[in-house]
Write a structure and sequence with these properties.
Length: 249
Amino acid sequence: MKALVFLATLAVATPALAGTPVTLKPNAFDADGVVTLGDIFNGAGAAAGTPVATRTGASVMLNAAAVRGAAFRAGLDWPNAEGLRQIVVTGAASAGAAGSPASVAGRGNVDVLTWARSINAGEIVQPADLVWGKAAAAPADAPGDADAVIGLAARRPLREGAAVAARDVSAPQVIKTNEMVTLSYDNGGVSLSLQAKALSGGAVGDTINVQNVTSKKTVQAVVTGPGSAAVGPAAEQLKLARSQRYASR
């Protein structure tokens, strides 16, 4: 009989041990740079003031599992039924921008790679510069793997929180405009080389115009590496290999 009473008491007490259910706000934002559970969740109650992270930029991207853990420790229950990996919290000033990448990522349900920080044009993308997030829709050329953009250079300034697109990056230039390069020709055992001036910059595999410093004649050459370019059959093979590589993407 005592055992039955104990089990009945336990059955009544068990729900009380569960956390308070909360829901994720569609557009999470904070006003003072300190992100709290109340900034992220609806229904946080007394735990609303519990700090989770700090925001130093226009937005901050939080790991969803870490946020769920913080909520649990504060007595809240967020099951993350959507399977979110990241939560974007914006500053109050930018929260009203419905079309901003951060707000879109916060309310969407499509996994996308996003920029973890703002990147200047020409910077080389590092692994730490990328983080998975959620967006309403992915760019048409969104990469499915971080390795597809790591090591490439930003073609223009990129904003923190924006979804990554293949058009954002390109192979880093190894030859700059007006740089002196070694122009080579190889065919059937015959090898020739001379100095030429690059009239435009390019990455490996790019076709650029170079000028023979002696004859002043301009020809097209394929960039083969830092300070080097080629003409002739070797250059054509390099261009073909590059075009096939892009076609297979």
